Fold this protein.
Amino acid sequence: MTRVAVVGAAGRMGKALIEACAQVEGLTLSVATEHPASSLIGADAGEVAGIGKNGVIIAPTLDEAANDFDVLIDFTRPEPCLLHLNWCVAKGKKMVIGTTGFDDAGKAAIAKAAQQIGVVFAPNMSVGVNLCLKLLDMAARVLGDSVDIEIVEAHHRHKVDAPSGTALRMGEVVANALGRDLKECAVYGREGVTGERERQTIGFATVRAGDVVGDHTVMFADIGERVEITHKASSRMTFAKGAVRAAAWLQDKNTGLFDMQDVLGLK
Ligand SMILES: NC(=O)C1=CN([C@@H]2O[C@H](COP(=O)(O)OP(=O)(O)OC[C@H]3O[C@@H](n4cnc5c(N)ncnc54)[C@H](O)[C@@H]3O)[C@@H](O)[C@H]2O)C=CC1
Ligand SMILES: O=C(O)C1=N[C@H](C(=O)O)C[C@H](O)C1
């Protein structure tokens, strides 16, 4: 039985993760935390998630819980996530990281920590998006440099980072397939007199509106035809179930940095 801790338990993903833990066999929620200033400290995590009491009380820190779980799942923000990462390294706990919006230093800290603990780090835990990453690699290799590549993503009004972690990963996959460096060729939004499109760029466009769970389209546009690969999430449970699956998969991995392609056997 894998014992799971969910940090950010009252967040949009935190609540979905608590529900997913209750649905997946071989796994149990044993610890839940929230920001120390949250009004939900002391509340029952199951009740907060809308699935009825589960007896796990939301705590303000992990400090009392070191013996109570095996894998930590973090869908919060980069700053608290890196604090949780340090805590997990100190206590020898494994970690599933779904949080997005890290800078290069944050990503390097995660890679370094994974030399001491097992970590699954992925901007999107859904099976469908991870299938799309495979399809994107194939599409880029077949269509090559003759097409213009644009990535469009849409999310709910509360999302704080842009472009989404998923859009950036899609860009990396396409750039790698074409032998380009995304840092050199990405264009993030356009305004004013931009001049004609530079052919080797990869463009990103961001929409923030209403309650969109998460839409991503990668467009490969030539003269006379275009290919579009689109994923639309309609429920956060698709991400939560992937994260919980990753937590169970990590059980026998003592060190190493993995992503959902590893978990799903897509490499
Ligand atoms: N990898 C994936 O499949 C997915 C990743 N995400 C990412 O997950 C992250 C969270 O997204 P949402 O749930 O929509 O955000 P949210 O804002 O609803 O939830 C974040 C929660 O973390 C809590 N938090 C902040 N500091 C904390 C601390 N020190 N200790 C404990 N809890 C703390 C907040 O109070 C909040 O409840 C974002 O970075 C988002 O991009 C979201 C969906 C899927
Ligand atoms: O913040 C979100 O909601 C989501 N974030 C992830 C991202 O940044 O790619 C994944 C998903 O699209 C939902």
About this structure: Residues 127-233 form a domain with the Dihydrodipicolinate Reductase; domain 2 fold (CATH 3.30.360.10). The longest helix spans residues 127-143. The pocket of NAI (ligand 1) is lined by residues 7-8, 10-14, 33-35, 38, 75-77, 80, 98-101, 122-125, 165, 239 (CB under 6 Å). The longest strand covers residues 148-155.
